[in-house]
């Protein structure tokens, strides 16, 4: 049996995506969190210097999409990427949309809202000295507004961001009204990628109740959890 360790931040939707991918495969794994200033050590894991990093029998793979593809090569069943070429292509589109668009809404809701930011700080500094929390709060408040402004959402009003985001959820609800899963007849990397972003919004943002107020989305998230049981 392979020795698998996930190096992660607990609150990262990309790390959530990897945890779900591992559970989708039924693989046992260990987790090492890089809370607080321990995050500085993450840069030593790989040349890329970001998390998540999957350590698989001594081999290290960085980036959630690369990890998902690696897991499919090592453990083909059940697949994360559908085997049908068209379905696989659509799954990759969903995966990319989750990571390159939906993610920035998650960052906006978490880092620019004072209440959500406090919840995020509780998660990212759990088990660490209290001074690290204060330091990271200063860093987050400096870093993320600039990051979001560069990306584009930070140039919009909160109402405009909300309208764009819930427009996406209206579309997602319409799709799920006719399909149990985003691609094909079984959960795939598409569901895991999108669901992991929404899970983090539900966990800390002020929009949690409104997100779960979409009945099809709520049922789909619950079904996704049931389809990716906790590792033994």
Notes on the protein architecture:
Helix 3 crosses helix 5 (130-151). The mean pLDDT is 95. With 232 residues, this protein is α+β, with helices and mostly antiparallel strands. It folds into 2 domains: 4-74, Glutaredoxin, CATH 3.40.30; 85-227, Glutathione S-transferase Yfyf (Class Pi), Chain A, domain 2, CATH 1.20.1050. The two termini are 13 Å apart. The chain is globular. A 4-stranded mixed β-sheet has the order 2-1-3-4, covered by helices on one side. It has helices spanning 13-24, 64-74, 85-111, 114-124, 130-151, 158-176, 189-204, 208-212, 215-227; strands spanning 4-8, 30-33, 53-56, 59-62.
Q: In summary, what is this structure?
A:
The protein has 232 residues and is an alpha+beta fold. The protein contains nine helices and four strands, in the order βαβββαααααααα.
- Judging from the principal axes of the Cα atoms, what is the shape? globular
CATH 2nd-level architecture of the largest domain:
Up-down Bundle
Sheet of most strands? 4 strands, mixed
Q: Quickly count the domains.
A: 2
Ends: how far apart?
13 Å
Averaged pLDDT, please? Answer: 95
List segments where confidence is low: pLDDT < 50 over at least 5 consecutive residues: none
Strand order of the largest sheet: 2-1-3-4
Using only C-alpha atoms, the radius of gyration works out to: 18 Å
Helix content: 55-70%
CATH class descriptor of the largest domain: Mainly Alpha
SSE ordering:
EHEEEHHHHHHHH
Beta-strand content bin: 5-15%
- The number of distinct helices, counting runs of at least 4 residues, comes to 9
Number of strands: 4
């Amino acid at each position: 049996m392979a020795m698998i360790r996930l190096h992660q931040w607990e609150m990262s939707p990309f790390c959530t995506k990897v945890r779900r991918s591992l559970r989708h495969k039924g693989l046992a794994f260990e987790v090492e969190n890089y809370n607080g200033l321990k995050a500085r050590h993450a840069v030593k894991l790989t040349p890329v210097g970001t998390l998540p990093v999957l350590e698989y029998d001594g081999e290290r793979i960085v980036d959630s999409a690369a990890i998902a593809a690696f897991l499919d090569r090592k453990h083909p069943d059940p697949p994360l990427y559908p085997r049908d070429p068209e379905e696989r292509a659509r799954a990759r589109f969903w995966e990319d949309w989750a990571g390159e668009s939906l993610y920035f809404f998650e960052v906006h809701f978490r880092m620019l809202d004072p209440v959500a930011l406090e919840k995020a700080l509780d998660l990212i500094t759990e088990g660490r000295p209290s001074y690290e929390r204060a330091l990271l709060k200063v860093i987050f408040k400096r870093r993320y507004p600039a990051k979001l402004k560069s990306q584009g959402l930070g140039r919009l009003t909160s109402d405009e961001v909300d309208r764009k985001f819930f427009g996406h959820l209206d579309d997602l609800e319409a799709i799920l009204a006719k399909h149990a899963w985003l691609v094909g007849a079984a959960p795939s990397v598409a569901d895991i990628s999108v669901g992991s972003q929404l899970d983090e919004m539900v966990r800390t943002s002020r929009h949690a109740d409104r997100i779960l107020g979409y009945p099809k989305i709520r049922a789909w998230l619950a079904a996704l959890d049931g389809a990716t049981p906790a590792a033994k």
